[in-house]
């Protein structure tokens, strides 16, 4: 194993301890695995809570802070958090204005967030949920009924988070989150497999010189394998897969995302090709974000997420955000 | 090759095109390979220019913007930029207040920046230089006479950049930059080798189950090879190597840096161990930054950089910065 870890059993707790040390602006409950923005609950503000398996960092804990998530619940690596975490997070951040759960569409996450919503409701917290299911590669997958939730999670959390920061009510924040999810589509590509600490060897077998088109963020199979392609060819394939499903009738925000082990130099080069395809297809790009945001541990590869936007969504995208992984504005 | 590229020959140009598309707040001259903050030259402000081989992204172009670099000159992968780039950058950003060249200590970079300083001087640009040489692993190395320049570059560019933004004169900005370099030490560890696009195979041979202690950011040999160590053991070794050389008599800023292919989850876990060692050694940590900032393409591994600081250096560290890779404050 070429991992920078102590033992597999403590990887998530160790990561949270290190996050606490680096980010005094967050309250990190290592034992209960809840990361909360320090000033929560914020009076009159709807709270956003998300979570999911660890191994996708900075998603979700790296998106906690003003303008985005109120709290995040990290599970074990590639494993849903448990309802107790979500209920605890909701209680910590609810100001009385209600809580939106942002849930990626994986069976475990959906069940656990559903149970947490019921429990929180019993405790008097008003909860709404949004399901993120943007990955066009496959319908149904290893851990999913329906499409998988991937890069659009960032768009949902940023844009709904901005609306919440502006004191929009829960039904408006939830409606915006659903609008963003419905306007977003993703497609991912693996150049290598991924190795989890618990397994210690690649979770799937990808021979050198081949790539997996449509891979999931846990290494789930995609649409097909092909011999190695150029950045240009990959961009053509991924962007066309997204556009075929999304068919945008207006400008888009583009996320050109690294899976974790692809150099930033290569990601920027890939972005040049993504922009070229979009231009050739007549799609106007309003904003672009390039970097490692929704990752899969040590997987090399990339994904493209497009979100069709109107002026209001662009305004909310541009609104200030202050989190460990995403920060701009004042 | 498991790379997201077209052909090795266009990797740097492709990356710059993609950076231009993602960052309209920068002026990217792809042909001449110069990245400049859009509002340069800023009247009355000393300009900071840096550069070096590509493959260490976000260093340096990702640090261009208000509060940090005025311009960056990316060379070919792991190859110094040429004097023409630096002279062009200096001319683009000089307001008349002078230019500071931030130079990592590698033979090619030193020679080329020296030549550029002479040429710029002939064109009437007042130039000062600071040499960054913080890596305690080895004295002299593959491409270096004396210590290599690595993570401290970020500290020098951030802190001197903040002073320049506050309109400090050139001699003050240069003195601060030298102070930061002298107060900083680094130590890096490789868990895998690195593969450059041009070579297409690992630049050095590191068998699975071994690590290279003291590796350079181009894969240069370090102090020794050992069988795989835990995060705790690596932190002990790296931090002690830094402290032995630095012997800080006050608080430090810590950079816990990823080499590019190590998951952020692992880096945060490593940070927990770094903080533990520092605490055990009685070193107070004023600020901590965790992430992939001074990378080595697809190398897995990490480095620790410590900078001994006083109140003024912490104030300049905290000052606003708005670059692609580092942003905080207003």
TrEMBL record, chains A, B:
Q: What class of enzyme is it?
A: transferase
Record EC number: 2.7.1.121
Organism domain of life: Bacteria
* Domain (DhaK) ranges: 7-328
**Gene designation:** dhaK
- Which NCBIfam families does its entry note? dhaK1
UniProt name for this protein: Dihydroxyacetone kinase subunit DhaK
Ordered alphabetically, the record's keywords are: Kinase, Transferase
